[in-house]
Amino acid sequence: MKSVSVIIPTFNGERTLPQLLGGLASQTHKVDEIIVVDSSSDDNTRDVASSFGIVPILIRREEFNHGSTRNMAASVAKGEILVFMTQDAIPANKEMIENLIKPLDDERVVCSYGRHIPKEDADLTERFSRGFNYPDYPLLKGRDDIKRLGIKTFFFSNVCSAIKKKVFDEVNGFDAVDMNEDMLFAEKIIHLGYLIAYCPEAQVFHSHNYSHIEQFKRYFDISKSLRERKLLKYKTVEKEGRSFVKEGVRFCLQKGGLIETGRFFVSVFFRYLGYQLGKISDVIPSSIEGHLSMYGGKR
Question: Are residues 175 and 47 in the same domain?
Answer without folding.
Answer: yes
